[in-house]
From TrEMBL:
This protein's name: Glycine reductase complex, protein C
Native organism: Carboxydothermus hydrogenoformans (strain ATCC BAA-161 / DSM 6008 / Z-2901)
Superkingdom to which the source organism belongs: Bacteria
GO molecular function: 3-oxoacyl-[acyl-carrier-protein] synthase activity
Span of domain DUF5940: 346-508
Sequence ranges assigned to domain Beta-ketoacyl-[acyl-carrier-protein] synthase III N-terminal in this UniProt record: 253-321
GO biological process: one example: fatty acid biosynthetic process
Amino acid sequence: MPVLKGVGQCLIHAPDLLYHNGTTQTVERLKNPDSEYLKKLPEHLRKYDDAVAYAPNQAYIGNIGLEELKTIPRPWYTNSINGASRFGKYGEIMPEDEFYGLLKIADAFDLVILEESFQEEVKEKLAKHKLINEQLLARLTNAKPPGEIEKLVTSHTAEGLYLGEKLVGCVRQAHEIDENLSAHIMLENLVVKASGILAVLHLLANTGINPEEVDYIIECSEEACGDMNQRGGGNFAKAIGEIAGLVNANGSDVRGFCAGPAHALLHAASLVKSGTFKNVVVVGGGAVAKLGMNGKDHVNKGMPVLEDMLGAFAILVSENDGLNPIIRLDVIGKHNIGSGASPQQVMKALVAEPLAKLGRKITEIDYYSVEMQNPELTEPAGAGNVPEANYKMIGALAVMAGEIGRADIHKFVEKHGLPGFAPTQGHIPSGVPALGFFRDALLEGKISSAMVIGKGSLFLARMTNLFDGLSLLIEKNPGKVEETTGLTKEAVREMVAEYLREMAKGLLS
């Protein structure tokens, strides 16, 4: 069985990328340059320390558990965590200025240009970072004076990088005509790459694996890199692995909207199970487009704009070590093309049907991780508490199966559900952010099983009206199991014994 060997989870505080490059703000600027929303927005942007002290962000990097998050009164943005730390068990919350430096480190074509004095400042800060070595720092080169950067931005051949009102750098276009290589797209793609690198570096540190032992990388964000001849041709995976030092790895990109990470996890586990690779990294970088997606509603309600965080994660799937939680491949929940699109039909396909094949009850799974969006980001926009709605639907399936009474749905949600805590970054909340929490609880013997559920809105691409979904069961490792073509030692012995008995019968006859 493949095992979940570790995670890396990072957030980047990006209020200026939100203001200048988030899709909601970009569209507003084009449609209504004198927008009252854009005028008010700067007053609602959080300071870095406020973002660090925000309880869901501390949960994302592993400083507080998800059960502990349940006990913190809402609104969470008025109940900050005292003494909150930038670094956590799974990763960190990086400030925007240092992330600009990481953008430059990630750059392979001299598209990122930082202002001279700013680059020196950020280089000093990154030199103190425990994961940024001299080899990475050496990539901070070719800084330019402010005038040259301003000229590129005003000529619309580059996207500016700002800290407040100060222009500290830019990302240049990679082609004069190709829209797929425009400055805006290059910024989005470099953010995916840089944030993915940060998550992988934390994953390597958390697991202690030698980077040279990673065989394959699967990248599963929602952006696509390519040019006019092959839009989305890739490859984020190898681009991330190159900078992170995964020199013996190959890789590819998997896309499935919000369900992408679940598909990538399935691919990784299957590759390990088959014996094709021993160590596979699944990584997803952050989405600039989703920054401030519900910003108008946050501002209208007098809130801070909470969608100021880029999310990133990395997962290591490895051969069975007899210790880490196993990823079961004998039962996969999947939303088939003919499954139907109602919430009940989707959850039946992803939860009830795979568990029925195992003869397991819905109530026998300790926790479910669904679409783990932080409700404080979605409720102001009228989208409600997305995780809670999913848990109620799973509870309703348990009622239909006769496992609980209708009046017990609330108790089911409390027992088997978790609070939404992930930023609304599309693919980031979809099931996988709880893997670190699940792994810890399984290793500590607090739970025995958990299900990860990813769902995707394929209709957004205008190619089909279908939804998508995939679920995987994660369980406590029963102990070391040596696998030979999928068989245990005992099974092989029994087969050999049977063969010898049959051969002896033949000789006697």
